[in-house]
Amino acid sequence: MEESNKEILMLRDKYEMDINKLKAIIKRLEIKCGSLEVSLQQKTEECAALSALCDEVTGKRM
């Protein structure tokens, strides 16, 4: 009985460590995703500004 309890405790500890590891991975990926979203927004704005500038230089109007 005592060995079974020890095994259950070991399995529970391993489970909790695995869960914590996965939570850390999720958190890193969420941070990376947020950073990529900000970068995409900046690039989109830069592209729109550059496109408007090119249109102005070439004399095209939207």
From TrEMBL:
Natural source organism: Rhamnusium bicolor
Residue ranges annotated as coiled coil are: 12-46
Sorted alphabetically, the keyword list is: Coiled coil, Cytoplasm, Cytoskeleton
**Record family assignment:** Belongs to the TACC family.
| Subcellular location as annotated | Cytoplasm, Cytoskeleton
GO annotations of cellular component type:
cytoskeleton
Q: Which domain of life is it from?
A: Eukaryota
One Pfam family named in its UniProt record: TACC_C
Protein name, UniProt field: Transforming acidic coiled-coil-containing protein C-terminal domain-containing protein
Where the record annotates domain Transforming acidic coiled-coil-containing protein C-terminal, the positions are 1-57
